Amino acid sequence: MTYWLTTIFLFYLSTLGFSQDNLRQVLSAENRDIIPFASITNLSKNRAYTADSQGTFNPFGSVAGDTLLISSVGFYSHQFTLGKNKEFTLKPKLSILNEVTVNPPQWRRTKAFSKLKRKQINGYLGNNYGSHNWQSARKIEPNEDFKNLCYLKSVSFLTISQKSNIKFEVIIYSIDENGQPGNYLHHEKIFGIADKGKRVTSVNLKPFNIKIPPEGVFVAVQWLLVDQNVNEYTIYDKNGTRLGSKEYYEPSFGSERGEGSIGYRKGGMDWEKLSHSDSEGTLTDYPKNVIVLEFEISD
Predict the structure, then answer these.
(1) pLDDT tens digit string along 35-53?
(2) pLDDT tens-digit map of 129-170
(3) Statement to judge: residues 73 and 112 lie in one domain
(4) Which residues of 143-181 are buried (b: 16+ CB within 10 A; e: fewer)?
(5) How far, CA to CA in Å, does 53 sit from each of 3, 101, 152, 174, 282?
(6) Domain span at 42
């Protein structure tokens, strides 16, 4: 099966023009530090952006009066009305985790869960160009081992990419009272790097000292909508005739059908539970697949 068929895309919208004069920047309201790779969603249109490493982005396709939702790990999300303002500021978010004294991790004993197997996936989950700041989240259920091995040490994904050195974001959430992804469980951004080809991509979580609550956590991936992650795939009809091409963001993640409350996705403000309309599944169901992952815990 060719690559264009095995990659599942969440949404598509064509690109519009780019203007250097239209650049905006996302900063901390506390000290005006740059907020790199912030997520920006135009709630008035189906447009989304990611700020670059300098916190800058170009809201091409947006017009004055549009509502922009800007968010980033460690900060309160905020809605802004797009106008002539060149800067957007977010307030730092002080987590309740700062108020709790915990024993530091020792990293002596380790146990792995949900070992990755390529045969368990039925497609790769990707993100088409310029539509939404999609996040795909999978629930890690409570486990007796979490009582003694309660820190996340690493998480791994099955990735496929046509390019090397592709950066994506990993976000660890608590589970809220409704069983959905809740608060951030870390204050700094976590990034993974996917290399070219099909491979297991691992992300080291030790620097972030993420303690697993008794009720479990959600692990989410978010695509970075930046130029270096853009690629294109070719579309063919059933006879093999080339119909054209479309742009998308690397990488794509191995996924499987996820039922019940195990998986959620978000492309704007609200989380959506992943479910399928029938037992067999159809092509329109595939965007509701859940990422597959392996994780390690330690003491």
Answers:
(1) 999 999 999 987 899 999 9
(2) 666 888 999 999 888 888 888 999 999 999 999 999 999 999
(3) no
(4) eeebeebbbbbbbbbbbbbbeeebbbbbbbbbbeeebbb
(5) 30, 33, 26, 27, 38
(6) 20-90
